[in-house]
Structure formats: structure tokens, C-alpha cells
Amino acid sequence: MNRRPLYRVLYERACRRYARYLGDKPADAIYRFMCSPKFWKEHRYWPHFKNPRSFSEKVFNRMLFDRDPQWTTLSDKLRVRDFVAGKVGSEYLIPMLWTGDSPEEIPFNELPLKFVIKTNHGCGYNIIVMDKTQLDQTQASRQLKKWLGENFCYATFVGMAWAYKNVRPSIIIESFLEDSGSVPRDYKFFCFSGRAEFFKIDFARFEDHSEIFFDIDLTPLDVLEEGLNRYQGKLAVPDNYKDMVRLAESLAQGFDFIRVDLYNVDSRIYVGELTCYPGAGLIRLIPRKYDFILGEKWKMK
Question: Is residue 26 situated within a structural domain?
């Protein structure tokens, strides 16, 4: 088992405990200082949280100081559906098969062969079901109960992801979006002041994950997230690419920054999620200059 050093476990536990002490208050000088080593460890430069310059610093700034309840609405995978429907229409929502609070109430017999189970109050709380006849329902229920009992804000990283703190946990079961038998490509649009400036495509996220970045004019960019490979296969931009851009920008209106994640299956566009804390500010971009290029685009309110 890959175990983290004890000092790191104790450090993160102390940070999360202090975050609990702060509650809904913005970060004070003590908590800012406590979070700085985490940033330095991931990015290898000391952060300026109060006067951020890079994209990663600005994500941290939002997590540490911005307590606008809109971030809770957008981070709640259940409530954000109403936001999306009100902005652009319910036809862009992934079809929902069931929602509820208890794993024991999931109507497995009524569900199709393939579907996705997730909880609404965090990231990574997903069970991809490719064949329900092979699903261990007892194990799935046990895993869901564990997730439902966690507060994602306080259970992960150093307690910074405030937007998830006040989300009431629920279970969501959605249709499995399929592209030639696999999970579809994930298009992530980085929108600044209501305009899509960059996007990236994630391929085979649950298998051999790779990616590629573009500017909005479809020029490939020589940048990668650390730990991922550049996609090497053939790539054709969807015929309705401009519709995707318009949809992303419609959802981004009113925000100084938001990432809009879309799927495009058989020329139909679906909204995956709206992300206010991409990678919790911990994703290292290679080369580093792109952290500052994206940061320059983000004109914080």
C-alpha cells in the first residue's frame, strides 16, 4: 500500500481542523500560512494568496476568501442542474435515472445495463457501471454510505474547498453517455469574464488518460498537466464546435472565471459540470508559464 509520510498526514489533518474552526469565515493569516506549504509542494514557488498572479494562486484565492453561496450551488451536482436548465435549457442535461438519499432504495432492477452512480457533494465520488449484472450491489452501497458520511471540504486536501462544505449529500444516477462503447471525450472550456479563451480535451479518463490543450481558435498549445501524456491519436473537432463555445459562454456569463465541462455525443451536447476550483489549484502546468498566462486572463472581481 502506498502510504503517505506521517508528517504529511498530520500536517493536512491540522489544516483541516483549523478550517473547521474558521467555518464560513474567509481565511485568516494563520490559515493562509498553513496552506502555503501545500501550494509550494505542488508548484515549487511560494504563493501570493492576497495578491495572486498565476491561475493556481487565483484558484487558491477563491477557495480561501470568496464565500459567495453561488459557488455552493454550482458545486452541488444536483442543484446545478436547475441552474443549467434555467440558463440554457434542460435539453443539455445528462438524463437522470434516479436520485435519493439512501443506497438501499436504489431500484437496481429498473435501471438499464449501463449507468453512472455519483454523489452530489464532491469530486471523484463516482461508480461507473458498464454492466450491472457484474455490479456488487452490497459493495456499491457500502461505498456510497462512506461517501455520504463525508464532508468533502474537510475530508480532502487541507480543507480549502469551501464550496462543497454546505452541500447536502445525495445520490444521483445518470444515463451512461457512450461514444463507440467508451466514455466520451471531455471538453473543458476555460471561460474568463464570460468568454471562452482556452479548452482542453480529456481522452479515456478511466483508462489510459491523455489530454490536449487548444486556444479557442483551435490552435494546439504546447502545455500539459503534470503526470498526463499528450494525446497522439487522430482528432477531428466536432462539426458543432461553435455551438459548444456559445453554450459554454452562455453558462459563463456573470463569472470572472468558470470552467465549463461539456460532452459531445452523436452531435448532441451535454453539460458535465461547472467547475469553480479546477484541480483545487494543485495541478501543475508544464511549462509553468501557462499558469501565469491563464492567470493573466482571469480579471478577478
Answer: no
